[in-house]
User: Fold these one by one.
Assistant:
Number 1:
Amino acid sequence: MKPLKSEKRSFIILCFFIIISLCIYASINEARLEDLLRFTRGCDAANNSSSTSSFSSLSTGGGDDIRILIGILTLPDQYLKRHFLRLVYGVQSVEGAKIDVKFIFCNLTKEDQKTLVALEIMRYDDIIILNCPENMNKGKTLTFFSSLPDLFNDTDRPYPPYHYVMKADDDTFLRLPNFVESLKPLPREDLYYGYVIPCRSMDPFKHYMSGMGYLVSWDIAEWIKESEIPRKHFEGPEDKVFGEWMREGRRGKNRFNGKWSMYNFPEPPTTCTHELWPDTIAVHLLKNQVKWIRTLKYFNFTASMKPSKLYHIP
Ligand SMILES: *[C@@H]1O[C@H](CO)[C@@H](O)[C@H](O)[C@H]1NC(C)=O
Ligand SMILES: *[C@@H]1O[C@H](CO)[C@@H](O)[C@H](O)[C@H]1NC(C)=O
Ligand SMILES: *[C@@H]1O[C@H](CO)[C@@H](O)[C@H](O)[C@H]1NC(C)=O
Ligand SMILES: *[C@@H]1O[C@H](CO)[C@@H](O)[C@H](O)[C@H]1NC(C)=O
Ligand SMILES: *[C@@H]1O[C@H](CO)[C@@H](O)[C@H](O)[C@H]1NC(C)=O
């Protein structure tokens, strides 16, 4: 009996060290807490000498998840906007997908930003500061896409780090579960997804995808980094210019037109607007709080709030 006991003890010690190193690994890699927990449970069960096989449950749990990076291009001073969007995206949860929403801007320009943005990063870690002067229509989109391969090239990440990368506006509301559902059947290579411009067109090869939010597969971000085509020509309306790169580089053989699941807010009506309706992925041009609230209310966005005696919202 004795040797068995000491075997058990050293096994428990081994488990302990593995857990500690996993914790360190997890904090570095954002490995999923679930996997960690599942693994610790494996160790617990192994306390029972007959059930060591549960170790096999340590694996790439969620390895089949779609990984999506949503980059919201915004400006350093938009603190309240970021606060609001963190709420809007933070309360949506999606099965079968790992979605990172990050705010993208160029170099900070003011003294107070160095403190305020640093605080946000410490608390939320959802900001990417690109190496560029803040600009509109002068290549911020190019800097964003072409920086991604190096920003996410850590060897301990899976490859590709994200299957898809989206560029979105800060006045766009994305319904993440519907968004992910729409992506599931689509190819993970050479994909260019969005709301095709011109507004009346339903042909995804017509011109280009609207800046409200377009998505490409990771190979296109790599192509943008490597190719001369975007570098030759990046000034001008960024979504249009992006579409021109796709055409000139013969990229985006796979296209998906999200219209009319993606549209502009119904008011004021134009050829790009649509009534709010259940089959919605994205609503764009939410330029003020009234429009945001009308949209969130329409989708019963707060209906899943837990009841409690601590508050009462009629
Ligand atoms: C230990 O193993 C026995 C036999 O396989 C099983 O019946 C029992 O439920 C296990 N106990 C724990 C705590 O896992
Ligand atoms: C593990 O085993 C020890 C004795 O070997 C026992 O006291 C303890 O309750 C067990 N823990 C679990 C979780 O089964
Ligand atoms: C942005 O800031 C970094 C360091 O803070 C600096 O090295 C770089 O030259 C700046 N880039 C631009 C385009 O201003
Ligand atoms: C990632 O890219 C950076 C910048 O190009 C480079 O310095 C670094 O060596 C790369 N790391 C890996 C693991 O490829
Ligand atoms: C919101 O909830 C109402 C009442 O339950 C329901 O009739 C409506 O269909 C829901 N709207 C959406 C977009 O799901």
Note: Residues 57-261 form a domain with the Spore Coat Polysaccharide Biosynthesis Protein SpsA; Chain A fold (CATH 3.90.550).
Number 2:
Amino acid sequence: MYFSPLSVIFTSSFVVSTLAATYQLSDNHVGTDFLSTFVHEAIPDPTHGRVNYVDQATALAQNLTFASGNTLIMRADSKTTLSASGPGRNSVRIHSNKKYTTHVSVFDIRHMPQGCGTWPAAWEVGDDWPNQGEVDIA
Ligand SMILES: *[C@@H]1O[C@H](CO)[C@@H](O)[C@H](O)[C@H]1NC(C)=O
């Protein structure tokens, strides 16, 4: 489960399905939970966007990741003037520590940005992306 938003506020729940028509909650990630159940990926953008993904400590220090109560906010830096030839804007990308197979995911996202230069997203992939496919959720 991955998130790479530029300014997203959300909570999410993961529900495991059984063969019967009932579902049981297996995991519920709300607000500050994301700081321990998801990992910030400080990696070059796999899709070659002009962005600089930072680790959790940097994201928290720069308030690009903010968690409190039932709220998680992830955003891109909007204050720094970038060099035309330098690295891209600091932003965040996180993935869940836990891997899910058969499941239902429920997201409660209060806001996702739109506009030029934004690419907010929530998606799921197999270990061998793109060969195992991708589910784009939001
Ligand atoms: C960090 O972001 C939150 C949410 O937008 C805001 O309430 C808070 O004041 C910010 N903290 C700092 C130090 O700017």
Note: The longest helix spans residues 56-61.
Number 3:
Amino acid sequence: MCKDHNWINTAVRKIEADFQRSADTHLLKLDLPALDGIDIYLKDESTHPTGSLKHRLARSLFLYAICNGWIGPETTVIEASSGSTAVSEAYFARLLGLPFIAVMPKNTAKKKIEQIEFYGGRAHLVDHSAQIYDESRRLAQELNGHYMDQFTYAERATDWRGNNSIANAIFSQMKLEPHPEPQWIVMSPGTGGTSATIGRYIRYQKFNTKLCVADPENSVFFDAYHTNDPHLTCQQGSKIEGIGRPRVEPSFIAGVVDEMRKIPDAASVATAHWLSELLGRKVGASTGTNFYAVLQLACEMKSRGETGSIVTLLCDSGERYLDSYFDPNWVAENIGSLTPYLNQLKEIEQHGCSAPIC
Ligand SMILES: *Cc1c(COP(=O)(O)O)cnc(C)c1O
């Protein structure tokens, strides 16, 4: 329990000063003339100092833990992560001069492990993604440290009503667009925290925008949403890094989700490749998951003769995944053929939604 106000004040000020030095991330407008009438936007979260949307979450989790007295000047910070959160938390731990240990599945992208170590953190690898929770709790006890527990606290550490959330940023950046209030915002769930923030903000602001959440294979969120069963688990870990979980995370708030879609992993990876070509730079696979759902929704809007806008997130850069999603051998071994999806995506790019996409 930290009651040292001097340390708390200094720690909060350091995090606030870091925020003050930061700019908001860009909202990119996509150029897809074949989808005429549907404007698609990507909030580019890859440009945060630590490379993903988890920069926002790590900032919120540290502020929450400091203000709750959970971490102090001597605390070792421990986190269960599939990688991105740990990179961002390692950054903030270093800013505060605290030791940091990330408990991650052993198949986590090497680039992420290198980045954690670059920021002075330590990677503690386990065999399966379902083991990260207990191992983090055990380590925290052993070292008298603090387990941050992003999967529990993501939804509540983020100030969703205020003017500094990703949801508020999206709506304010959309203000001068032809369709400023999006028909859909699409997000894929890891903690579920970003979806919770966006969904709550939409309701709080009385917008008519709907929230679509896109789940990968090897994840329980989709089934949990449809069965209302919070105890579902699955054995195999998600192959789409950053999203898809083996248990229903406490931060997943089903009540603010208007619709869920299950996206095949091959579609996610193919879309990440195709979108990377379109943008001229590589995006991660969860961005592919998001964008495949965006294209489904866009084509459904087209078929109903609707016009409007759809917003989604570019969650992280594909440069982190050169030895996985962007390695043809890895893809052939772990995901399978992308060709049918790549053909479908080219077709949409060139001729619009002639073929149904589902
Ligand atoms: C965490 C993460 C997500 C999902 O965001 P949540 O707010 O945790 O649901 C998507 N993509 C990537 C790359 C991530 O790291």
Note: The CA atoms of residues 246 and 334 lie 18 Å apart.
Number 4:
Amino acid sequence: MSLCDLAPGYIQAIAPYQPGKPTAELARELGLDETSIIKLASNENPLGVSPKALAAMRALLDGLARYPDGNGFELKQALSDRFGVEHNRIVLGNGSNDVLELAARAFLAPGLSAVYAQHAFAVYPLAVQAAGAQGIEVPAKDYGHDLAAMAAAVRPDTRIVFVANPNNPTGTFVPGAELEKFIAALPQDVLVVLDEAYTEYLRPDFRYDSIGWLKKHPNLVITRTFSKVYGLAGLRVGYALAAPGVADLMNRVRQPFNVNSLSLAAAAAALNDEDFIRRSYELNCRGMDQVVAGLGQLGLKHIPSYGNFVTFEVPDAAAVFRRLLQLGVIVRPIAAYGMPGHLRVSIGLESENARFLDALKQALA
Ligand SMILES: *Cc1c(COP(=O)(O)O)cnc(C)c1O
């Protein structure tokens, strides 16, 4: 028996996460000029990094010989000022991926289970499996979360229910009132991890006050990220808001310096760059209209999306994905999400959206 065979079976069974293809990789593979490639595969902000975040990082470069603040005081203070939550309710992470895993590591173990929806974010099954717990996948309803079925799927050994709102890759959304009813009806000893990676992209009439629910529902964990509207995906920084006891457990299992100095400073600055956030939001609204109209003109059906991406149905999606690559356009195949007949495209700059639609037309011809 080899050393690797001795790793726990649940570790050996992990199917690695499939990220969006980096532009440099496609350039190498196809001999393309990297600057000619557009990547609409990872729901990044097409406007780049917030200018305030850039300035904060530049001011910090000379201090990089020092370890970061392991408690992330300044970023916690910025979050606290912004959202009215105490520091002891905040867990900072190396991306929100990190805090999702911290929740799983703190509350799951072999013999326990976690519930999530079919077509939900791929990190949930990964985090559950890495903790040795059992994942319970609940069939989607119209590609979105079927909250009634998810509540019914909770077993005595269930410790976490994951909900992504809006969901990635489907872009579906559950109204806040339904969500709160769902949380209120769950047993108090089941943690609800509410992943709000795209919440800043919600239209004002769809926004809801999940942070206000924290005091009523001590089993609620809200996770958010600086990777999407804040434009800091490459830095890896996100956070969770939870009851103090839950946050304490999650903080105990994190690495002491899981968020680096640049990320801490950039995130605190980006959080308050209102102008950049508004421009990003507005660009996304216009781009969503542009892409949805273009898909319609090509006769393709899409799933109405509340995020900064849209998923559409296309005949022979795998072949269309490859043809788009040859045309220098990277989108995201989502067969691994149980959706082999769909592709997901992130909303880019107007010119990028136009190039994507043009390439898609060629790829379909
Ligand atoms: C992008 C995304 C995240 C954020 O990932 P980071 O690790 O913060 O970059 C979390 N949840 C969902 C649903 C996402 O799509």
Note: The mean pLDDT is 97.
